[in-house]
């Protein structure tokens, strides 16, 4: 607790940053929590930093900081994360969207043809890829699939809140489409599947390891199992001019490229890098 009856926003933020530092948590987390709760930018803070903090704001921030000190993700604390400048609800049933995913999404969506496409987001989680695609390209028919009903509930809520007309299905990868025969000509499949191998457990950040959903993180066969399944299924559904884009772990580029090339022997399969120059996606053209 802060041992002052009256405190300014600057003092409150300094206390929060100092508190988190004792638990080896970045001081920036304190600023993010305060700004997200208040809907502030850095400019807002500069203008109001010397104002006295209201009791309710102070109480909420102290509670948030104590929770963050346990390595609980700040996005779960406030209940949302931003993706492509849209706020997405996140819970412990969904992964927290990453900047690396946002980077490759923005690249591919700008290069698609103007005609209407049928698009499927496999393993949609909170729905960021499917929803942002629909918002960027309203002419496309967009489906989102996830094996987790809890994740789909969050994704549906995000779609409704953001006004994106996305169709949701519960199922294992592309099985709902194969079994229904409803779509045999999918133009674009995108996926950020579970790709972490069990042997990487000790390398993971504590907040990810303890709180984000393991169903959305881990896959067998050194993280490659779902790529093998997805490649075989996609080969049955992708249109002649269709594309498949999957996010990968930075060590998996060549392995996933070989998996995809085996199912798509007559197509070009490229590895794409993220803004740090690390392998981040495999693209079947």
TrEMBL record:
Residues 11-79 form the Release factor glutamine methyltransferase N-terminal domain. SUPFAM superfamilies: S-adenosyl-L-methionine-dependent methyltransferases (SSF53335). Pfam families: MTS, PrmC_N. Its EC number is 2.1.1.297. Gene3D superfamilies: DNA helicase RuvA subunit, C-terminal domain, Vaccinia Virus protein VP39. NCBIfam families: hemK_fam (TIGR00536), RF_mod_PrmC (TIGR03534). This is Release factor glutamine methyltransferase.
């Amino acid at each position: 607790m802060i041992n002052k009856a009256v405190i300014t926003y600057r003092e409150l933020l300094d206390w929060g940053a100092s508190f988190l530092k004792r638990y080896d948590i970045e001081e920036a987390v304190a600023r993010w929590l305060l700004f997200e709760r208040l809907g502030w930018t850095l400019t807002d803070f500069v203008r109001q930093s010397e104002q006295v903090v209201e009791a309710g704001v102070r109480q909420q921030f102290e509670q948030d900081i104590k929770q963050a000190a346990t390595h609980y993700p700040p996005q779960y604390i406030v209940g949302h994360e931003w993706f492509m400048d849209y706020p997405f609800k996140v819970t412990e049933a969904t992964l927290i969207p990453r900047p690396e995913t946002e980077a490759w999404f923005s690249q591919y969506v700008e290069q698609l043809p103007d005609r209407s496409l049928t698009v499927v987001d496999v393993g949609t989680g909170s729905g960021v890829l499917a929803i942002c695609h629909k918002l960027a390209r309203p002419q496309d028919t967009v489906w989102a699939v996830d094996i987790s009903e809890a994740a789909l509930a969050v994704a549906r809520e995000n779609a409704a809140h953001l006004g994106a007309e996305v169709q949701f299905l519960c199922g294992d990868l592309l099985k709902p489409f194969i079994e229904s025969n409803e779509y045999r000509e999918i133009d674009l499949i995108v996926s950020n599947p579970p790709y972490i191998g069990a042997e990487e457990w000790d390398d993971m950040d504590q907040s990810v390891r303890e709180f984000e959903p393991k169903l959305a993180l881990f896959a067998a066969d050194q993280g490659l199992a779902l790529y093998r399944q997805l490649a075989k299924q996609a080969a049955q559904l992708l249109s002649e001019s269709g594309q498949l884009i999957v996010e990968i772990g930075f060590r998996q580029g060549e392995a996933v490229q070989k998996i995809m090339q085996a199912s798509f022997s007559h197509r070009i399969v490229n590895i794409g890098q993220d803004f740090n120059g690390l392998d981040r996606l495999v693209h079947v053209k």
